Amino acid sequence: MPLSRLNKEQLEAATSSYARNLIIASAGTGKTSTIVGRIAHLLQKGIQPSEILLLTFTNKAAAEMIERVAGFFGNSVASKIDAGTFHAVSYRWLKKKNAKVVLKQQRDLKSLFRSVYEKRSFQNIAAEVPQYGGNYLYDLHSLYQNTELELDFESWIKKNYPEHDLYAMIYADIVDEFEALKKEFGFLNFNDLLIQFRETAKKEHLGYKEVLVDEYQDTNALQGTIIDAINPPSLFCVGDYDQSIYAFNGADINIIGSFTKKYPDAKVFNLSKNYRSTLPILSLANRVIEHNERIYPKKLEVTRTDLSIPPKLLAYDELFDQYHGIAHLISNTQTPHEEIAVIFRNNSTADGIEVALRELNIACKRKGGNSFFDAKEVKAVLDLYTLLVNEQDMMAFIHLFEYAKGVGSAMAKELYMALKTLGGGSLFYGLYAPDEKIRNPFEKRNVNHQLGLFDDFLELGAVGKFAKLGFDKRFMKNAVLKHPKLTKDAAQFLYEFYTLYKELKGIKQPRTVVRKIASSTLFEHIASTLATKRAQLKDGSIDEKLKEEALLKIKRKMLLLEELAKPYKEHERFLNAMILGSNDLTQGQGVNLLSIHASKGLEFKEVYVIDLMDGRFPNRKLMARGGSLDEERRLFYVAVTRAKDILYLSYAKYDKVKKVEFLPSQFLYEACLVEKDEHYRKMVMMSQD
Fold this sequence. Notes:
alpha/beta, Rossmann fold, 4 domains, 6-stranded parallel beta sheet, globular
């Protein structure tokens, strides 16, 4: 049984009789075994599996833990445990309530947000600083939702960004209009899932007798209020303050730091035995992380007694020498490539190492930075698919029509609303059977100079200019073609959209839908647009070979997306799996190229932590924008503790492209791999300022 496999510290934590428990589980100390042991203890005490809630940082982690429980208690028991991320659990509860959930990625809703933002003018405001752009304002509002529990958005802007005081009212009004549009069309982003679930938990008892929270150090204020709202009889939180690395996303290290103040009767357990790394690797990690303030005292013990290899510092004269040097080391290692990870702090670093590996025909897979699901071509297919399932999804329409030449977010929204008007509330009725009595389907714009609203809509245009484009007669009668700013290219895009959905009607298999979309004239237009942009040289010319390569990569992504659709029989299940589970999916085989955030929770026999130059890691630019050296140091700690047996740390002294000289990272000095000198003392002084 799970409990019989635990060491003394793990067993004491797993069988705790306290109502509020905090388990400090440092890297490699067996936190998963402890959580599985705790679940086993609850089941043996007679707690029903449906009365247990397990909240994890990824759905993959939840699945692995439930699989381990199933190995002892059977799938019929384990499958009844409510397990998943905060977002996945929230989504399931809202679906139970028969709520209409049209889930959207945060990044995708930016198109809708920009359609509101672009209608505003800031020209009449005499401020010393320029206004925030639409994308940045969206991210700022998302941060607000995750971290602020009392102030409204306008007051929060004024408090935290006083230089934008004069814009605060317009910012808040943009957000209000955006939220009203989301409510009108039933859109929910990940933050909305949490907020609505919290309100559900406040109103009714959810039936949980114990809530277990994994990666507790990375919870944010909003997630914290969900735990408070559930208020279970027993709480079991597992985390490590030294691995809190999501401050940029709203994670608040003070939540784990203040646990005993919030719950005075809480019991704190400390798992001190490390089963992953060798003594030299763990000693190096501890030398660095000890420069951070200690929240809870802890001292790790290494349990491995086998032969250990000291971590090795690799110093290169030039940046690309580093990437090629590491690639050659990997080509000569005896370690299987799947057991190797190259871990990076910055996305540009990954590009260099990926190219160097490919040159040696070394297969690699990359996670973190730009993933498969971040690819614009993948998002375009999923947007087209989404409209097939839910024609009310204005955001998907807007996002797609930004690929039409001369059409921005605001104009795309006008076209969508016009089609709905022509169709009596239906986009596709407006497209295929428009009300011919409606001559002007475009809404009149509001004017409010204080809120930056203005009217630049001109008289209706004539459709005669599209006569030679070969559109069918029914389409030519559509009043949406009268938009005064609609170009021939944009009209052609709209016609290709019109043609595609005729072909998609009635198809029930997700895989077939993906294939049809990927082979459509409309998607060929989108793919060509993306490939052309990716092949554009600095002088503006297009490298045809690069364009051909870009198109081939897009085609490969479409084949992979088709493969992902294979197991699904229902459109909605497929789409929601792509949204909720996209962060857990990777592609390819070979060496693992991982951002530090993507490496969290993983372990590898051989690890390379690269680009350890001051300024790059720690990333001084991000520190200046609200980060901290403590956070960067925790990132370093997470990176090096992914290594089980072999650890390489590398840096370069010069970048010949940018003509920049580098100094070793502050962390290399702290690790005692570089002798402390005047440069180090200057770094320390700079960090203290």
